[in-house]
Amino acid sequence: MHPVTATNTLWVFVSCSHEPRHLYDIIFAVDCLRCRGIGDAQILVFVDHPTPGQHLHAYGIEAVFPISALGAVLSTARAHEHVVLTVAGHGSIVGLGMESAPVRPAALIRATRSVPGIKLATLLVTQCFGGIFNLLDASTKPEMVTIGATNLNPSASLGIQLSKPLLQRDGSPGIASWSANIFMMGFFAWLRAPTDVDGDGAVTMLDAYKHAGASSNEQLRQAKSGLFLHARKLASDLEVARESGALPFTLDAIELKLNRALSSLHLHQEAWLLHASLARRIHF
Known about the structure:
Blueprint: E1 2-3, E2 9-16, H1 20-35, E3 43-47, H2 53-56, E4 64-66, H3 70-75, E5 82-89, E6 91-92, E7 95-96, H4 105-113, E8 120-125, E9 143-148, E10 157-161, E11 177-181, H5 182-192, H6 205-243, H7 248-265, E12 272-274, H8 276-281, E13 282-283
Helix pairs in contact: 1-5, 5-6, 6-7
């Protein structure tokens, strides 16, 4: 059995994106960790955002590094038995970030396994095409669990509204709504108040995976009902605009909205897990 405690686990976030919304996903996750008594000394953030401090520092997230420093920082970090590395932001079929300059899965895994004192690791890959992390070596010491929000498809982000805004470092209300990665939200929402999802008498990483997968796909299913009606209206608007002789830029604008709606409507997201036997032994 491998218990996750407030001091034996290093929580690492990696995000390839210039969009603030992906930093908001990290802020939410860090808020959940703090609710579990995990201190800032156990949290590291790596991003390629040009000005992450303007979004993260207000929430007291100070240990922020460029992604290029990932290997160097992790290999010299304070010793931890367990590393949980969450991948947010964008992904492509060749790695994290854009295809022109990807961070390859093998490089990320090597960096994770380089943390001093590590005995096991969990990779939570929430970005598009997370399946590029699947079917890789999981049993080499230190062993590694990999949890994916989606396989070889885009991942889903939806507009969310928190019941209460996240508090900034000075106690003032902060973000309360953004387009959030729903699998990542589900995972860390479960972590805030872990439960035995499958009823086996233990609260484990398997329960986190099952909750995040089920809850995110339920949200996606509900969202698709509205997307269908929205797409149908846009298709009607496009037809009317064509018949009325609307200007090309007007037609292009409607068609762009329609294509985006159809892309989300046909999105398929299925969670997956690599090395379930180890996930069963990671207890909360």
